[in-house]
Structures are given as C-alpha cells and as structure tokens.
Design goal:
This protein has 392 residues and is of the alpha/beta class. It has helices spanning 18-28, 57-62, 76-87, 100-103, 108-114, 139-145, 165-189, 199-204, 208-217, 253-262, 279-291, 296-303, 316-321, 323-327, 369-375, 380-388; strands at 9-12, 32-37, 51-52, 55-56, 66-70, 91-94, 119-124, 194-198, 235-239, 245-249, 310-312, 331-336, 340-345. The longest helix has 25 residues, at 165-189. The chain is elongated.
C-alpha cells in the first residue's frame, strides 16, 4: 500500500521531544525524514538513560522510521550540502530559538530562494516574536505562563501532568497538522510557506472549555473548582484498599445512576450530583470511603459488565499487556540485530487506504550519512575529506 506521505522529504534539524515527535508522525506515514545531527554527539536525547543497546529508550521511540545524517552546519561545506538537500526537499523542520537559522545563513528567506515550494516549520517555546521570543523554556514553563497549571490538580496546589502537554499537544501535533495543511495548500497555490509554531500558543488553545466557561461566568478557574477538575464526586480518582486507584467518569445521569446502583448506594442518585456546592466535598468523601473497602482487582471485577465509566488506573507494564492495547496494535513486537527484542509504541491513527507502518528502527548516529550524500552526488573521496574536516 502507498503511504500517505510517500514522496515527501523532510529535513529534520530538531532535537529532544517536540520536533522529533512531529517528524515521527510524518515518518510513520511514509515521509522520508532525514534527521540531521551534529557529528559531535547528535540529538541530546540519544544518550539519556536508560539505554537499550547504545541508544536511549526515548530515542528509540521518537526516531523510528527516520534516516540519520551527520552534518556540521557551522562549516561552509556543511551549509552547502544542506542547501543541496533543501533543493529537493519538501519540508524543513527545526526547533532552535528564533534567529539561529538566520545567523547561519539558512533561514527561511535564504532557503525559499533555493526552493520556492519549501515548507519551513519552526517550533519554538514562545514564537518568533513577542517579549518572550528569546526566552528559554520547557513544558512546565509554557503551561505555567498560559494558565493551564493554575487550575490543574486539587485545591492544595497546582500539579504537573505526567505527559508533556505543551511539547506534544501544543507543539508537535500542531506542527504536524500545519505541515500537512501547508502541503495541501501547496497543491493549490504552487508554493511553500513559513510555519511559526509556539508551544505556549498551542497549549493555550487547550484552555478551550475553561476559556468558554470564564467568558460566560467571569470566574477565574482554580484547582478543584470544576466537574472536570476534582470538583465533583462523579468525575474523580479514588484510592482502593491496596493502594491502587480507580477512575470514575460518570458525568451523564445514566452513568451515575448505574454506578450508584452497582455499589448499592441508590441514595446518592440525587439531582444535585451534578451541581457545584459544599455537598460535593461530602459526597466525594463518601465515595472515597466506599472505594477504600475493596482492592482494585475487586472493583475491576465488579465493574466488568457495568457500563458506567469506572475504570482502573493502570501502570505502564499493565497497559503494555492490555488486550485492547494489543488489539489496536498500539504495542508492536520488534527485533533489532543488536538491541534484541523490544516493544515499540504503535501508530494511533488508523487509515484504511494509506496506513502508517513501522518500517525501520531508530537510526544510529550518522547511520545513513554515506547513503544520503551519495544520493545527492557526493562521492566517497569527497566524503572522506568532509569527514576529516569535521563536516560529517
């Protein structure tokens, strides 16, 4: 089957999480993603422990289906090779601070002159302009400054999510969507464009529900004040007798009614279960006491045939053994000649005609340098000289 992005060439200069996750999505659906890395170490995330073989587990998941080319962009020869690649590329993806590529002489204006159809996507913390444009930041900072953390968690204090909402949701996913949109637009307009992705901007849009509520009631959100935010008994996390947890999401009346009946507490099924007020704290305490009377396994058995949105909080190893996860091919068994057998994260979107595939393992640093340079006509003798000069 032909993949959705077959024939699309992406030059990926990004490191760590947001950019590599974006290019992973493109690579999974057939794009030829060339991961361009500095010869002296490459992407930092390659070496973050724990390791599988000589590579970080993070690298193995994020950089599958890609090719690795080492190239020193500070060297004149490196710049020229990059420009040769740009001439035949569809997308350039980078995650440097604004202005870095311009100072290298490889910014969008310079590259557009080489390839007018080029789509150039820059992922930054705060965007290409504004008072914070040059400020360093990470996921926690973006979520703090755009207010997401201000009402995350319980009343005592804000809490961090276990996954990187701004990096992935605000940066990587928006970048992948925007690149796809730009490729579609290019088919009609015949030219590429610049994409300015700010992770802080992207994560700000995840406020959508609370933003709408604030527009309507004027009440500034805070932890534990809302039905989706530990404020209601019907939508919360509860500890079990063995120190595990259950998630209860019985928002709708039919689900709450069935939950109450299933646990023998039909008296809880009152109209005020879905209204704010002091009674919610009392109801939460009663529900919490109930959940502490049984183990998680016992609750799982009780709710196995009860369709009331009550599910266990699973650990990572349990998720990787879960039947639903395997049925959806979200765990894929792979074998590497040096790492051995391992379980790769699957591909979430399921396209019937142009599905994504796991074709290649994450590359070793510079694994495809010779292959890629040969493709653009750089012979072995020249490559040897480039290697001696620290260009590759």
């Amino acid at each position: 089957m032909l993949a959705a992005f077959t024939g699309v060439k992406v030059l990926d200069l990004s490191r760590l999480l947001p950019g590599p996750f974006c290019s992973m999505l493109l690579a999974d659906f057939g794009a030829d993603v060339i991961k361009i890395e500095d010869p002296n170490g490459g992407d930092y995330i390659r070496w973050w422990p724990p390791l599988l073989g000589k590579n970080s587990g993070f690298h193995i998941v994020l950089n599958r289906n890609k090719r690795s080319l080492t190239l020193n962009l500070k060297k004149p020869e490196g710049k020229e090779i990059f420009k040769q690649l740009v001439a035949e590329a569809d997308v350039v993806l980078e995650g440097f601070r604004p202005g870095v590529m311009d100072r290298l002489g490889l910014g969008y204006k310079e590259l557009r002159a080489i390839n007018p159809c080029l789509i150039y996507c820059a992922i930054t913390g705060y965007g290409s302009d504004g008072p914070r444009a040059q400020r360093a930041g990470h996921d926690i900072n973006y979520l703090a400054l755009n207010g997401v953390l201000s009402y995350s968690g319980r009343e005592e204090q804000p809490t961090m999510s276990g996954v990187q909402v701004a990096d992935l949701g605000g940066g990587a996913l928006y970048a992948a969507f925007s690149i796809t949109a730009a490729l579609f637009a290019r088919e009609r307009l015949g030219k590429g464009q610049f994409i300015d992705i700010a992770m802080a901007d992207g994560a700000l849009t995840w406020h959508c529900l609370r933003w709408g509520k604030y527009l309507a009631d004027g009440i500034v959100p805070k932890p534990g004040d809302d039905f989706l935010n530990h404020g209601f008994a019907c939508y919360n996390l509860y500890a079990t007798s063995d120190g595990r947890f259950m998630s209860l999401g019985a928002l709708e009346p039919q689900f709450w009614k069935l939950f109450c009946e299933s646990v023998g507490r039909s008296d809880w099924n009152q109209p005020n279960y879905f209204t704010p007020g002091p009674h919610q704290q009392e109801l939460q305490q009663q529900v919490a006491e109930l959940f502490r009377t049984r183990t998680q396994a016992e609750w799982i058995r009780l709710f196995a045939d009860k369709d009331c949105c009550c599910e266990p909080v699973l650990h990572m190893d349990e998720v990787m053994r879960d039947k639903q996860t395997h049925q959806r091919q979200m765990v894929v068994e792979l074998m590497h000649e040096r790492w051995g057998a391992y379980q790769q994260l699957g591909i979430a979107p399921k396209l019937s005609l142009t599905p994504g595939t796991l074709r290649d393992h994450a590359p070793e640093l510079g694994e495809h340098t010779v292959e890629i340079l040969m493709e653009i006509g750089v012979d072995e003798t020249t490559q040897d000289a480039l290697r001696i000069g620290g260009v590759i």
